[in-house]
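#help-structures

NK: newbie question. if I give both the sequence and a SMILES, will the prediction place the ligand too? trying with PRP
OV: yes, paste both and it writes out the complex. here, I ran yours:
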Amino acid sequence: MKIKDKHFKVLLDYEQISKRVMELAAAINHDYEGKNPLFIAIMNGAFMFAADLMKHVHIPSEITFIKVNSYQATKSTGNVKELIGLQENIFKRNLIIIEDIVDTGNTISHLLEDFNTLGADSIEIVALLHKPEAVKKKVAIKYQGFSIPNKFVVGYGLDYDGYGRNTRDIFELLE
Ligand SMILES: O=P(O)(O)OC[C@H]1O[C@H](OP(=O)(O)OP(=O)(O)O)[C@H](O)[C@@H]1O
Ligand SMILES: Nc1nc2[nH]cnc2c(=O)[nH]1
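OV: that's the protein plus ligand as structure tokens.
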């Protein structure tokens, strides 16, 4: 499989992904019964995972979407990330952050810091992919889809330079 100038091979096929997505949703249905969770999906990468996950979440719940500014290479401190689009009041809410991937953990740890200051009752993470070998900031991922090797992946929402988000399978870069 070629995306732009690079070659990729299948890491996880859609059948494996959907089975795991259903299991994650089942665990959330069980744990959040009566808790009216607010899901917050992190754009762009999480759009496909969030859509599939939510089809199997059957408890009363809400979902919203935010985009997080990535680091600016020019900023030396580099650690201020801006939340774009969070309009809901998250005070006393039970939040479930939906991420496609936790790699270094930078994005998710900044989000946790921000959400903690806004008075949420509880915050948990559901992440389809996790690269344990890449972690720089350790965060507890309550609902994890797959632990994967420290290789660049694309597909199922994840991009290579903007491309490749629109595949059912997840691919890893062939070096
Ligand atoms: O654990 P980290 O090293 O912080 O990496 C994980 C983040 O990287 C990806 O987002 P990206 O910044 O590529 O934006 P995108 O979702 O819009 O593609 C992914 O969706 C996570 O949010
Ligand atoms: N597409 C993509 N985005 C990422 N963001 C953090 N890690 C990755 C990765 O492996 N692939």
